[in-house]
Amino acid sequence: MKKYLLSLLMILTLLFITCGNEPPEEFYEGTPEDSTDIHNLLDQNPELLVTDDMFEATYITVNLDPVQFFVADSYYRTTDTIVKIHVDSCGLNLTERNDVLDFWFAKDTTCTVYLYDTFSVMSLMHYDEKQTGYYFWGGDTHIGLDTVLIDSTGGYDEQMVAGNGYRHIFFDWDETNGWQLKRISYGTYNFPAAGTDIPIADKVMLTFSDGTQDSIIRSSYDTLYTGHVMNRFRSIDSLINVPAGETLGVELTLAFGQVVDTMCVFYASCGGTNRVELEDGAGSLIVTGSGVTNLYFESVVKNSYYYVVPEEDYKAQVWLIPVRIQ
Fold first, then answer.
1. What pLDDT shows up at residue 25?
2. How far apart (Å, rounded) are the C-alpha atoms in residues 191 and 186?
3. Quick one: which H or E segment has residue 16?
4. Is the pLDDT of residue 198 over 90?
5. 252: part of which helix (H) or strand (E)?
6. What is the 3-state secondary structure (H, E, C) of 183-233?
7. How many separate helices (H) and strands (E) can be counted in the chain?
8. pTM as predicted
9. 77 — phi, psi (to 5°)?
10. What is the C-alpha separation between 70 and 148, in angstroms, rounded?
11. Rounded CA gap, 252 and 270, in Å?
12. Is 237 exposed, middle or buried (0-12, 13-18, 19+ CB in 10 A)?
C-alpha cells in the first residue's frame, strides 16, 4: 500500500511540474511546396549543380618518369610477364553521371540539400613506348626479371573509372521573401572511393597576378577560422573572386598519409577547359568563363598510367572549388 501511495504521489508531482508547459517544438519536415520552391531556386542557379565539367576528353601532355621494373613488381604479377607503358598525354571522358538531391529540413526552418554524384569515366591515354618484362623462377622462392622487350611504336589505351562524391547547398526561410539560397560547400570527389590508398589533398594555394594569395584547406577545427575550408559551408556571396582571363599560380599539397606527392601526378582545370598538368603540384591556370565557375584540382596516383598487365586501378581525388568570375 505504501508503494502504491508513493507511486501515486510521484505521478501527481510530475503532473504538477509539467502542467502549463508547452509541448516541445516538432521537428520541421518540410512540405511539397517547400521542396518545389527550393527546386525552383536551384533551377535559377544551375551553375551550382554542375560537377561533371571536370572531365575533359582533350588529350594534354603529361610528364611521367621513364618506365622502370621494381622488385615489388614480381610480388603481385599474375603471369610470367608484366606489361608497362609510358604515357605522354591523357584525357578523361565522362560516360555517365548520376546525381541525387537529398533534402534535409531542420526545426530552425532551414534546409540542407546534399548533392550526391556518381560517375563512370574513361581514362584516356596515349603512350609512346610499351615495355614487357619477362620473369623466371630463380629457385623455390625467388622470382627474377629475365629480359625486357621495348616497343616504341606507340598507341592508345583506356581504362574505365568509377568515382563518387558530394557537396552541400544551404537554404534559409525568410518570412518576407520565402526560401533563400545562403551558403554552399566545396566538393570532394574520390576515385574509386575514399580510402587510405588514394591521394588526400590538404591545401591548394592560389596566387593572383597582383601578388595576393588565397588558400583552401582540407579541414579546420577552429570555429573562428574564416578562410576557405573544404568541408564547411561558405556564404554564396563570399566565393573567391577571380578576374576573367586571370592566370592563377597554383600550388597543391597532399596531407600526410599512405600516398605521398612523389607517387602522384597533378592537374588543374577551369570549368571543363584549360586542363593542365601541375608539375610536382605547382603550375599556372588560365581562368575563363563568367559568373560562378568551378576550378578543379586533381591528384592521381601515377601507377594507373604505367601498368597494363596487371592493370592498376585508377586512384585519384578531385577538389571542386566554385569561384566567381568578375
1. 58
2. 17
3. helix 2-18
4. yes
5. strand 247-254
6. EEECEEEEECCCCCCCCCEEEEEEECCCCCEEEEECCCCCCCCCCEECCCE
7. 3, 19
8. 0.88
9. -65, 150
10. 12
11. 15
12. exposed
Sign for the CA dihedral angle at 240, 244, 250, 253 comes to positive
Tell me the mean pLDDT in the region 311-322.
96
As a residue count, the chain comes to 326
> What single-letter amino acid sits at 295?
L
Give me the residues paired with residue 188 across strands.
166, 319
What is the C-alpha radius of gyration for the chain, rounded to an integer number of angstroms? 27
> Which residue type is seen at 25?
E
Cα separations (Å) of 254 from 8, 10, 101, 318? 65, 61, 30, 12
Whether the ω angle into residue 310 lies within 30 degrees of 0, i.e. cis, is: yes
- Predicted local confidence at residue 10, as pLDDT: 57
Residue 123 has a pLDDT of 97
Please name the residue that has the C-alpha cell 578523361.
92
Q: What is the dihedral of CA 215, 271, 35, 120, to 10 degrees?
A: -110
- What residue ranges do the domains of the chain occupy? 27-325
Q: For 23-69, write each residue's pLDDT tens digit.
A: 555 667 789 999 999 999 999 999 999 999 999 889 999 999 999 99
Distance CA 222, CA 58 (A): 41
